Structures are given as structure tokens and as C-alpha cells.
Amino acid sequence: MLSEMKPKMRIEIAENAGFCPGVQRAVDIAEKAAEKYGKVYTLGELIHNEDAVADLKRKGVFAVETPDEAEKSPVVIRSHGVPKNVENEVREKCAEVFDATCPFVKRIHGIVSGMDKGSTVFVLGDKDHPEVVGIVGNASCKAYACRDFEEIDALIKSGAVKDGERFAVVVQTTFDRGKFDEYSENIRRKYARAEIYDTICNATDKRQRSARELAKKADLMIVVGGKSSSNTRRLAEICGEYCKTVFVSNADELSGQALLGLSAGSLVGITAGASTPRYIIKEVHNKMNEENIKNTENNEEDFASLLEQDQSFTRLYTNKRVKATVVSVSKKEAVVEVGAKQTGYIVREELTNDPNAEVEDIVKPGDVIDAVVIKVDDNVGTVALSKKRIDSAIGLEKLAAVKEANETIEGVVSQVVKGGVIVIYANTRVFIPGSHTGIPRTGKLEELLKKTVKFKIIEVSNERGGRVVGSIRQAMKEIRDSERAKFWESIEVGQKFEGEVRSIESYGVFVDIGPVDGLIHTADLTWNRVGHPKDIVNIGDKIKVIVKSFDAEKKRVSLTAKDPDENPWLKFVAEYKQGEVIKATVVSIMDFGAFAQIIPGVDGLIHISQISTERVTDINTVLKIGQEVDVKIIEIDNERERVSLSIRALSEPEGETESTEEEE
Q1: Are 105 and 22 in contact (CB under 8 A)?
Q2: Is 641 marked active-site?
């Protein structure tokens, strides 16, 4: 009996113990349904707790295994959920259906049912647990239940996932957080394209965390819950890693034998699984208080007094956050003082996420820093700590705020890793996938190494150590969009740019002038005659251009490379007059006449009627391309910048040359 114990104990209940919101919701739904109909059925036990199930029976809630057993009666789908085909069968056969599936489980159903038929999904959890059975039964694609990373890895290697096929991983809501973080890290490292969904229930995470923290400081842990409850069994496993642990279903199972040997001031912690009603936890707590011996108060006071006298006594345990004073630094580590008898040290890898940083660049003797304990070795009197884990947690909060505000930030690319690059921001690693770097597939990610880049945050996950994903591409797009908007607000005809030739077509050249590309039609490339644009420019050439016209609505810009100050027509009208006889070179022959170059950039037309005093039917019989001929300037049209020439006028008396303007 507990009364055999003599020392007085301190009793503490874990902060998050007992019914989770999903279980409480299921119980409330079942009790209200029973109150309405007098008797209802659940497919399987509503929750994994024998006492709670017995209490529900007294209220008219009974468990059956198949829909046939509850035919034409009201049925409650329990919090674990059921496969889709079972749900359909229940709705067909039963009078009314109350869906008490936990919202967290429903979310997983939504993920797996939304997968493409050709995809694969792995469900990480207990294969035989009803929740996992229900998740697999709701998948719209191939689905496998796996206990750990090794099973997933083996299935992928055996061909369960084909090359290029999409696959995802979801996790049972009550799965152990530490194991999930470990498995998901292994999956990401080996299969970068895997889609991993953290579907562990927040309540489960909090319950495990508070149980772990209490167990770290307790001398004994009492875990209360049903023996068939997987999440309660997991709580017992977690507590057992840190102190003596007793697993009971209720207060009646509490044995004094488990409590023997506790000294004055011993701390006994109590936690309970998600399916444990609050009244059972209270009964266990009351029984402990009833049996607690009251005659050792002085012992407790003496013990507390001893602790106060020894100022150097600081209890260190894994994950405890402490203030550390840097004593010395070396290339590999920093030695710190943490107010305990053990010597503290932080290796370089635990000081920062930046693999290129040196210890002396991060901390100096005398610095007081925040750190977290990662290992205590009492045998050699040392404690290993981490600064970067604290920094990462703070950085994670900053990056979550950056994502929320949709800000663009910048950082230095510190590493090239499989599938992308790493940027350090606020002492936190940000992974940027290759597809988000802006580097084409044929390019090399190493081009970004040690460079400062602007990027956006597209994902922040609170998994172990934190996971942050960024995108340089999105930041670049946003910057380009902003620059384009400013461009269209400020563009003017006559505006000058220096651009780069992007592409060459038969009709012209596309030039990058910053935010947009503009088109130079072939005729606007040069003042000289052009055959094909590639004869004038090459891709990558720098070229000075002027805005000829633009359409902001259609996002089009027409450019010219002809500098008005270099217009050869100005030189022509300055040096030549109408009536002059000059030499010109035939550059092209058309049906209606021949064009002859007077100076580079200025051609004159020798109309077919002005070639000879005799009738000409085929110009090619009279003139050849490249032939130099004597001609007379018979007309200069300054408005249209055109020149009319004549060979015939050289053989006729002055004033008898026919006007060819209408014929032209």
C-alpha cells in the first residue's frame, strides 16, 4: 500500500495531460447522440481507454466492429476516422451518421485523397492502428503504411516509386516528434523531391514535450491511460528515458512498491494519454495526496537550505536553456562557464550555421551568450552546448515574420548542396532549391557561391531544427515586375538606352533594354543598306538604341539604332545640289528602275524611263549591280529624303528631261 511510504513527496501534473480537443469532441458528439436517441453505436471503441469506454456504455454508447452490426441505427465514426469505403457503407446502411473524426486526421485524409492517381503516399505510423488504416483507406493513389524510414527506403528501392513519379509522406497524428524529425531529415537527404507533410497533432506534440520536461526533473513518473492506447504507450517510453516510470490505467492500479525508495523532497510527476478522462487523472492525484506522509517537512526544508547554500549547484539536463560566458576560444571550439561544476564547450559546428565562419569571428572571451544543453557527461565533468540552435529558433521567428510580410531579403550563398544552395540569414540556414535559384538546368549552381543574393521566403516549418525554404527566382520576378512598372511610367519617345542583342530574326533584332525587350526593325538597324540583320549584329552585342514608338497597353517598344546626328542625308544635302552630274554605283535592280548609291546611306532612284533615250524593257540588259555610272540629280525631295537620278538626261538638251514623279 502507498501508506507504507514515509517521506513526503512533491506531486506535479504535466501541463498538457489527458483528453486532447479531438478526443473531447468525439466524446461530446457521442454523448449528445446517445442523449438524443437513447442508444448509439461506434465503429470500434471510441477511444482507447477501458474506463472511459465503460463510462460511455453506461450513457448508451456501444462499440461494434462492422456497419452490419449497427444497421438502421445511429452510428458515430470515432476520432481515428475510417477508410472511405467503410464510411460509404455506414452512410448506406445506418439511420444517421455522426462524424467525430478528429479535424487533424481529416486534414490527412484531405492530403492523401487529393494526390494524383499515379502518385504514391507513405503513411508513417503503426500499421495496425485504426487511424493509419483509415488514412490508407482514404488515399486516391498507391498508399503504404510504414513504421520507420528504413521501411520507406526499402519500398522505394524495390520499385514502389517509379522514376519521376510524385510521392509524399504523411505521419500519424500521435507519432513521436523526435523520431519523425529524424526520419523526415533522412528522407529529405536521400530523396530531395519527396513531399513531407508534418501532420502530428499539436496537442500530441505539446503533451509529449511537457511529459519529457517533467520527466527530466522528476524522480518518478506515473503515466495514466489505456494499455491499448498507442500515444499513452509512447508517453511511457519517453518518460522512461529520463526516470523511473509506472504505467497505470487508473488509481486502483497504483502500487506502493513502485514508490518505495523515494527520498525526502522527491518529485513525482503525473501525465496521461489523449484518451484519459480528466477525472481519472484527478483520482490518481488524489490518491497520491491521501497517502503522502506529512512528517518530513523539516527534511524538505533542510534539503532546500542546502541547495541555497551551494550557489554553484545548477542542475543541467538536455534541452535546458542557459546563459553561458565565453572563457576561451580556439579554432575548433569555445569553452564556456554555465554556473555549474561541469566545464561547458561549444564546438564550431554548434556555434553557427555558416560553414565558412571561424570561431573567433563568432564569439570572444567575456561574451555572454544564450545556449542550450545538448549533452551532459558527468563521468568526465563536461557539458556540450549549442548556440546555433538558439539562434536558429530566433531566426526562424524572424523568417516567419518576413514570409508573413512578403518581404525581399538578402544573404550570402554559403554552400552548394544536393538539389540547391544554402543561404545564411539571421544565423539560420535557408534552403533554395535549384529550380528557385534562377540558374538554368544547364547552368552550374556554383556560380552563386559566396555571392550576395536577394530572395523571398516561401516556406517556414517548425520541424526539429527548423526548415526554411527560399526563392531567388520569386524575388527576381518581383524586382523585374517593379522595374517594368516604373519603365512604362517613365518611357518617352526619343529616350536613349544601351541594350544587349537577345535574338535575331529576319525582320529585325530584339534588344534587352533592362526591364523589357524592344524590337529594331531591319530598316532601323543602320543608315546603310541591310541584307539580313545577322550581317550587322551578333547575339550578345552591346548596341545604342533610341525609342521610336511604344504601346504601354500591349507592352511593346519599337527602337531604332539610327542616330539622327549621323543621318547621311544631312551630309548629302550639304554637299550635293539638284542638276549636278555625279558618279553613283548600282546597288539593286527592280522592275521599275535601279537604285544607285551616291554616298553610304543615301541611294538615288534611276527610273526605268531615265535609263536611256531608247525604250528599255529589261533593265538587266543595260545595267549591272556594282556598275559605276554617271548620273544627273534631277530631283531632291527633302521631306521624304528621296533622290531621283537620270542617265538619259546626260544625252538630252537642258530642260527636256521628263518628270517621273507620278510614274515613281
Answers
A1: yes
A2: no
Q: ∠ CA(130), CA(134), CA(140), 5° rounding? A: 160
Q: Is the distance from CB of 588 to CB of 595 less than 8 angstroms?
A: yes
Contact 648, 608 (CB under 8 A): no
Give bridge partners of residue 208 from the DSSP assignment.
none
Strand partners, 178: none
Query: What residues pair up with 122 in beta bridges, in sequence order?
Result: 144, 169
Alpha carbon separation from 510 to 339, 493, 535, 537, 564 (Å, rounded): 69, 18, 15, 11, 21
Instruction: Give the C-alpha separation, 396 to 256, whole Å.
Output: 46
**Among 291, 287, 293, 385, CA closest to 336:** 385
Q: 3-class DSSP state for residue 311?
A: coil
Q: How far apart are CA 427 and CA 417, in angstroms?
A: 18
Q: Give the single-character DSSP code of 348.
A: G
Q: For 271, phi and psi rounded to 5 degrees?
A: -135, 165
DSSP H or E segment with residue 179: helix 177-190
Q: Which of 45, 87, 131, 635 is flagged as catalytic?
A: 131
Amino acid identity of residue 69, one-letter, is E
In degrees and rounded to multiples of 5, residue 339 shows phi and psi of: 75, 25
Compute the 3-state secondary structure of the chain and give helix, strand, coil in percent, each to the nearest 5: 35, 30, 35
Q: Which uninterrupted H or E stretch holds 485?
A: helix 472-490
pLDDT digit string, tens, across residues 446-495: 999 999 999 999 998 876 557 899 999 999 988 888 888 888 988 999 89
Give the C-alpha distances (Å, rounded to integers) separating 166 from 157, 297, 660: 15, 64, 74
What residues does 606 pair with on adjacent strands? 594, 645
In contact, 545 and 574? CB cutoff 8 Å: no
pLDDT tens-place string over residues 588-625 = 999 999 999 999 889 999 999 999 988 988 999 999 99
Only one residue has cell 514570409, namely 403
Which of 215, 210, 233 has its CA nearest to residue 49?
Answer: 233
Domains detected in the chain: 2-17+203-303 (3.40.1010.20), 21-102 (3.40.50.11270), 105-200 (3.40.1010.20), 321-386 (2.40.50.140), 391-477 (2.40.50.140), 491-566 (2.40.50.140), 576-651 (2.40.50.140)
Residue with the bigger pLDDT between 304 and 382: it is 382
563 and 520 in contact (C-beta within 8 Å)?
A: no
Distance CA 521, CA 506 (A): 9
What is the average pLDDT value for the chain, to the nearest integer?
84
The confidence band for 7, taking pLDDT boundaries of 50, 70 and 90, is very low
Residue 300, pLDDT score? 40
Q: What is the pTM of this model?
A: 0.41
Q: Residue 155: which H helix or E strand, with range?
A: helix 149-157
Closest alpha carbon to 222 in 178, 267, 176? 267
Cell numbers found for residue 345: 564547450
Query: How far is Cα of residue 368 from the mean position of the Cα atoms in its chain?
Result: 34
Is residue 539 within 8 Å of 502, Cβ to Cβ?
yes
HEC assignment per residue over 504-564: EECCEEEEECCCCEEEEEHHHCCCCCCCCHHHCCCCCCEEEEEEEEEECCCCEEEEECCCH
Give CA–CA dist 510/518, Å, rounded.
6
**Residue whose cell numbers read 491511460:** 225
- Residue 295: Cβ within 10 Å count: 9
Q: Which of 598, 593, 645 is nearest to 620 (CA)?
A: 593
Cβ pair 29, 100 in contact under 8 A:
yes
Please report, as a single letter, which amino acid is at residue 275: S
